[in-house]
Structure formats: structure tokens, C-alpha cells
Amino acid sequence: MTDRPSTPEWCLITELGHRITKVHNKGKRLMALKAVLVSLALAGAAFVPPVSAAQLTVGFSQIGSESGWRAAETTVSKSEAAKRGVNLKIADAQQKQENQIKAIRSFVAQGVDAIFLAPVVSSGWEAVLKEAKDAKIPVILLDRDIDPSGKELYLTAVTSDSVHEGEVAGDWLAKAVGDKACNVVELQGTVGASVATNRKKGFDTAIAKHANIKVVRSQTGDFTRAKGKEVMESFIKAEGGGKSLCAVYAHNDDMMVGAIQAMKEAGLKPGKDILTVSIDAVPDIFKAMVAGEANATVELTPNMAGPALDTLTAYKEKGTVPPKWIQTESKLYTSADDPQKAYDGKKGLGY
Ligand code: AHR
After folding, report:
1. Most exposed among 14, 157, 177, 256, judged by the fewest C-beta atoms under 10 Å?
2. Considering just the CA atoms, what is the radius of gyration of the chain in Å?
3. What's the CA gap between 48 and 317, in Å, rounded?
4. From ligand 1's centre to the CA of 301, what distance in Å?
5. How far, in whole angstroms, is CA 22 from its chain's centroid?
6. Can you tell me the distance from the alpha carbon of 183 to that of 185, in angstroms, rounded to the nearest whole number?
7. Model confidence pLDDT, tens digit, residues 75-124
8. DSSP per-residue string spanning 81-150
């Protein structure tokens, strides 16, 4: 059953309807009909039907499926849209900015009500976002940010504080190693991605307070499991078999899962001889914690679309202008936090 709106305009229409059915005389009926039409015309001038989430079509330019977290974000976005009756069109850019730009242009041409963008890198968005702005299509950034010069080109950004995530990881490591000398290798995310730049910056800031902790090697693993493994293998080789290493910091759990594999294959004991700290909190990192092969992760929620859709609906329905940044929570999990329970709670969520 559909709910009837209770706006004054609908009350007027309902009342007029009643008046027609009550009139039995043909002449009177015609006069009443005329009155109805005039009244409807007057009411119609002021009657702007509210936009509900169920009427919205949103285009989402997603980066790709480079990590378990990304796959979960896509799954959760679909279910959050379905819950609200929003028609969500997802374009997979396969990690390429040029594909994202094409997708945005296509969404603009289709006249969607809004565009969600997870920007693979932070620069180079001005021209295409200006096209969306000129077409009066609001853009909401999900999980990654763009360069400050583009700030006026989007409505809001739903992201974590990725500098803080790096700081949380660095603080955890500093506490775990105490005064012990600690050589760290770092697996960075995609070059040019805001989260990679920020997670590096946050970690560097946290360990700068501890002269005993040093990043001895740092390279991109592009947020993928395969590259994480490959780069870790080269780190181990370059560090004489890895015996002098004390910890691995990876900008996401997928790269860490690949690095754990590389360490095991090299005869090292991840989680024991070499500490691990990474970001995302995907089920597989909890599995590794249960096996004693991983130590800590900082959670990134895959539900960026839910808050974005609510913000968009409030903007469209009531004109509520959101703050420029809607920040999601970053929570540290360690092997002391019941990793089996965390794994069980997350394994069915599309990771
Ligand atoms: O932008 C969020 C990052 O992108 C996630 O931490 C990583 O797994 C993903 O690929």
C-alpha cells in the first residue's frame, strides 16, 4: 500500500474530490468540476512535489575491485541504495582515471540526479566536475578526497580521516616495540591517491616521535594482494632475507595478506618475528590474526554510500546543505580483540 502525502496541496485535492462525488445534479456537477479545475490550477502553481529518495537516480563512478574492502564497498552501496529505493548505476573504472572521467560525462549526459565519485587519484578532476556543476548535478565524493583546488566542485565528501589512520597505525607500532630498534618496510597504496599520501603522512608523523623506529624501504603495492606480495618479496631480498626487519606497515589489508604470504614463503614468521599493522579490517586480516600471523588493523567502514544517500536526500528534499566533510570512524583492532568474532561478523558482507 502506498502512503498518501499529507501536504496542504494533497488535502485540497482530496477535499475537492469529495465535493464532486457529493454533487448529484448534472448542472451542479459541471459547476463543481469547473471550480475543481480552477482550484487545481491555482494550487498547482504552488505545488512542487517533494523529491523522495525513491525517485532518485544516482551514478556511482567506482574505482574498480582492487581490494576486498573495495568489493565490500560496492556491495554495501548497492544494498544501501536498494533499501532507500534509489536507482544506483555503478560504473567500474578498472583503476583508471580516464574511465572515471568518461563515466562522469556519461552520467551527466543521462541527466542523473547526483553523481558519487570514489576518485582513484586526487588531481585532475576540475574540468569534468565543472561539467557536472554546470549541469546542476551534485557530486559527492566517497572514501577518497581530491585536491583542495576542486573543493567548490563537489557537495560533500564521505571519507575517513586517512592521516589519522596512519597515525593510529604508527602509534600502535610505537607502543608495541617500546624502546627496541625497529626497521619498518612500508607498502604504499596507489600513487597519487589521497589515502596513500595521507596514510604515509600520518604514520611518518607518529613514528617521528620515536628515534628507534625507521622506515627503511617504502614502495607502492597499488592496494592489491598480488603487488603486496611481489613488493614484499623484493624487500625481503634487498634486506638480506628479512631477518633485520621488525615490522611491515601496509596502507591496506590486502597488500598485507600478500606480504604475509611472501614472509612465510621466505621462512619468516609474520605476526611474531615481524609485526604487521595495516588498514581496512577485512575478514582475511582477522583470519591471519586468528592464525597468529597478523597483529593490528585500523577499520575503514565500507558503508560510505548510506550517509551519502541520506545527505543527498536531505539536500534534494529540504535544501539542507551538508558540511564539506562527513567523517567516518577509524577503529583499531588488534589480535587481543577477539579476531574470530570480528571475522564471523564480517565474512558475509561482500569482502
Ligand atoms: O580508498 C580506500 C582504500 O581503497 C582502501 O583502504 C583500499 O583497500 C582501497 O583499495
Report:
1. 14
2. 27
3. 11
4. 10
5. 56
6. 7
7. 999 999 999 999 999 999 999 999 999 999 999 999 999 999 999 999 99
8. HHHTT-EEEEEE-TT-HHHHHHHHHHHHHHT-SEEEE--SSSSS-HHHHHHHHHTT--EEEESS---GGG
Select from 196, 134, 203, 194 the least CA-distant residue to 173. 203
Reduced to 3 states, what is the DSSP secondary structure of residue 277?
strand
Mutate to test the pocket of ligand 1, among 74, 92, 252, 256 (most ligand atoms within 8 A of CB): 252
Task: Answer whether 299 contacts ligand 1 (Cβ < 6 A).
Answer: no
351 lines ligand 1 (CB under 6 A): no
What is the Cα–Cα distance from 51 to 237, expressed in whole angstroms?
59
* 275-280/325-327 β-pairing: unpaired
Report the chain's terminal Cα–Cα distance, integer Å.
36
Contact at 8 Å (CB) between 150 and 183?
no
Beta strands 296-300 and 330-334: pairing type? Answer: antiparallel
Residue nearest to atom 4 of ligand 1 (CA): 70
Ligand 1 centre and the CA of 278: distance in Å? 11
Q: What is the pLDDT of residue 36?
A: 41
Alpha carbons 71 and 331: distance in angstroms, whole number: 20
Phi, psi of 192 (to 5 degrees): 90, -10
**Alpha helices, DSSP H, located in the chain:** 8-22, 26-46, 68-83, 97-110, 126-134, 162-177, 194-208, 225-238, 253-265, 283-290, 305-318, 339-346
In the numeric block, which cell numbers belong to residue 9? 496541496
At residue 39, does pLDDT exceed 50?
Answer: no
Q: Name the more confident of 26 and 54.
A: 54
User: Ligand 1 pocket: which of 70, 188, 198, 249 to mutate (most atoms <8 Å of CB)?
Assistant: 70
Distances (CA, A) of 33 to 20, 27, 28: 7, 10, 8
